[in-house]
Amino acid sequence: MVAESNPARRLRRLFDRATATPRRRVAAAGVIGLVALGSLGAAVPIAAAVQAAPPAELAANSVARATEPLAAVASDAGTVSLHLAPTGAFVLDPAAATTIGVEIVNGSTELLSQGVVRLSVADDAPDDAAALDAWLGDAARTASAVGESQAPGLVSGGTTQVLVSIPAGRLDGAAAVTGLRAELLVDGVVVATNDAAFPSPHTASAGAPRLALAYPLTVPDDTAGLIDAEQLEAWTAPDGLLTRQLDAVADRSVAIGVDPRIIASVRVLGSRAPESATAWLERLGTVGNVVFPLAYADADLAVQSQLGLPAPLKPESFADVLDAADFLNGMPGVPATPPTQEPVTGPASLDGRALTQGSTPPPTATPGDVDGDGTVDEVPTTEQLLSWPYTRADIAWPADDTVAAGDLAWLAAGGLTTSLLSPGNVEPPAPAVDEEGDEDSTPVSTAPGNAASSIDGGTAVVADARLTAALRAAAAATSDAEWREAMGRLSAELAGYAAADASASSLLASFARAGGSAADRVEATLEALATLPWAQAASLSDAIGAPPVARTLASSPEAEERRATVQRLIDSEAQTISFATALTEPSQLTDSTRRDLLALLDAGWISTPTDWQSAANDWLTTQVQTRAGISVVPSSTINVISRESGVPATIENTLPYTVTLEVDVAPSNGRLIVEGRQTVTVEPESRASVVVPVAAGVGSGDVLLTVSLYSTEGVEIGSPTYLSANVQADWEGVGAAVLATIVVLFFGIGIWRNVHRRRKARAAAADEPTAAATAPAEASAPAAEAGRAAATAPEADAPAQKDEDPRDE
Q1: Cα–Cα distance between 650 and 652 in angstroms, integer?
Q2: Distance of alpha carbon 791 from alpha carbon 118, whole angstroms
Q3: How far is the CA of 337 from the CAs of 261, 620, 746, in angstroms?
Q4: pLDDT exceeds cutoff 80 at 323
Q5: Which comes out higher in pLDDT, residue 728 or 368?
Q6: Radius of gyration of the chain (CA)
Q7: Beta strands of 500-617 (E only): which ranges?
Q8: Which of 295, 304, 214, 306 is nearest to 556 (CA)?
Q9: From CA 126, how far away is CA 178, in angstroms rounded?
Q10: What is the pLDDT confidence band of residue 44, given thresholds at 50, 70 and 90?
């Protein structure tokens, strides 16, 4: 199959790819709306009328038009693009008549008027690497017109194809590679131009190179550290993203770098995993390809090294998403039979267990036996979830042009002893020097060296720049014409290597990290490569094992802004890990935080820095909100009126986790003395109250209380809360003293009065005899008078005197 032949299926795949994530669905809706508005506003019929120019006119105008300046319209420069290729093929027989299809894409915001498509052939055939580079990279190279056709008008965002016929004899029939140029002229001005090259099917091969390919089997970049069941079901459906990727590369001569997140996402679901996802995973275990693991979530390895991390980040656990009830029938996605592939090499598998030659995947799990060892397990361990029968586990695949000095040694220290590097991360070979010391423009040999390299004392395998660029262009093509043009370039590059006898070379070309978005053309590209006589299929291990070439690393540290943002992400995760010590089960928070961090480090984000920065900021905000989920509820002024009292505090937990905290109260002065911390457990999304004992110090007045929360490991949780307290703790003593004084005074005064009264009475009693002794003397004269009076008084008075003192009787 050369390309998609079903337009409806092709459109559906393009739509699925454009709407793979919520963000892309929103963007797609906006684009559809804009296109609809543009279509309504442009009342111009789109006609694909194709008309071949008469040969006589071509002959008359060939020389004149070949020398016209290649000037583009200023208002739309670079917004109208062309793609050209022979119809239905990507090789060109220059000796035969042929028809070239020229695709016009109006990427401008304006209506493109009718024009003329002119086709020219390179005056100097680009039949070697230097000439091909000059033709494809220098628009000033001369060419002669060989045909033209009318081009219809085109609305903004529209695409059309114009066919240009080239009669036999118009091209150089002996050329190994033919260079073609397409130009679009509107009112005599060149609006767009493009150069392409196509090999002849008769090009001789002195020695075809061995070509290994590497493909990253990943998913679109996202912020989730696990793929949910709904998305897995969609991506592993018969026409799903993961299914198309596996269909394209399975059992072909291409090494597969697998994102372990895909494997773990299926397995953590247990019995809840979609049937299609389980079947997909089992199929992956049976492919005959070289399979090696990427970093979890395809996390950017180079930036971790450049930030000085001790080792590559990896998931700590999946315990927060595992349920024993889902694993009664074992762990899903365990390959039932060993894959037919090369012996395992490398120091260790992803889970740290040694892999030996001829090792096989775990046996099929039985009910309750997660890992197939004959024992009944509750849930699989992290190592079991990530384990896989990888062919190699010693390969690191950093993102393109991100490796800096020291990174290779850092990767090797982590067990990744072989690095797969992009061509931009390696210095180009030094130019040849003649005997006089001047640079010789004539290369000694056009045959490439091996991909295997020795760089800074480390082992690497470097992708070929020429082949990789063409391979990625073919895989990312969105139309048949664009794909055939890219395949023509790839074929021409291989034909040039073969003509220079590269049979001793083991080369590597790598696909781009497109998150599966380019999967539709991968299969067609691999099938087309298999038919070319200018390359021999080879495995990645063949390329790695070839004699290494000494190369120099082109240090390409990542942008300072990106490194600063990644450092913020890592610092925020560290704060969350410390905060999680307040949880009864810290892994409930830390596990998902680490996985989501790795997802944010996905190498696929590098191509969309604006979107990544926005996603990183959102994640940082979420982390701050999570750490603010435990707090002390502010309250009104607290009155402390006793010497031994307590400060009440209400703890709020808005998180879905149970937390255990220590509450500490620090007074601003000595009026209060805190006797110690209090421990409290707060259930998810609830509040709990606690009383911290305090003792009154000296004096009364206002006290500012600083209430802080700590985990049981002594980590401060959240920010302190300040409460006001009014201390009048001495009122109790004063009141008791006053009351005692009153009682003492009351009884004291009473006693004193009694004592005083008695003393007064005694004094009065003591004074009576003295008064009696002095009374007769003082009354003697009057008494004599009284006696005389009494003697003369009547006798009747006698009884009265007798009655005055009865004792006298």
Answers
A1: 7
A2: 186
A3: 22, 44, 103
A4: yes
A5: 728
A6: 48
A7: 506-510, 536-537, 549-550
A8: 306
A9: 7
A10: very low
> Residue 352 carries which side chain, given as an amino acid letter?
G
Cβ-proximal residues to 360 (8 Å cutoff; 6+ apart), any chain: 338, 389
For the stretch 241-293, pLDDT in tens is 999 999 999 999 999 999 999 999 999 999 999 999 999 999 999 999 999 99
For the cut 90, the answer to whether the pLDDT of residue 314 exceeds it is yes
Query: Alpha helix (H) ranges present in 580-655?
Result: 587-600, 609-627
Query: DSSP assignment of 682-751, as one string?
Result: E-TTEEEEEEEEEEE-SS-EEEEEEEEEEETTS-EEEEEEEEEEEE-TTHHHHHHHHHHHHHHHHHHHHH
Residue 128 three-state SS: coil
HSE-CB for 383 with a 13 A CA cutoff: 8
Token pair in block for residue 246: 């596996």
CA 497 to each of CA 257, 503, 546: distance values in angstroms, whole numbers, following the listed order? 27, 9, 18
Integer angstrom CA distances of residue 783 from 460, 566, 588, 790: 155, 133, 123, 10
Cβ-contact 663, 677 below 8 angstroms: yes
Q: What is the full DSSP assignment across 373-436?
A: SSS--SS--HHHHH----SBS-EE-PPTT---TTHHHHHHHTT--EEEE-GGGBPPPPPPB-TT
Place of tokens 């004084």: 741
Distance from chain centroid for Cα 465? 29
Q: Are 580 and 589 in contact (CB under 8 A)?
A: yes
536-537 vs 210-217, strand pairing mode = parallel
Q: How far is Cα 164 from Cα 86, in angstroms, rounded to an integer?
A: 10
Mean pLDDT of the chain: 80
Contact 474, 467 (CB under 8 A): no
Residue 766's pLDDT band (cuts 50, 70, 90): confident
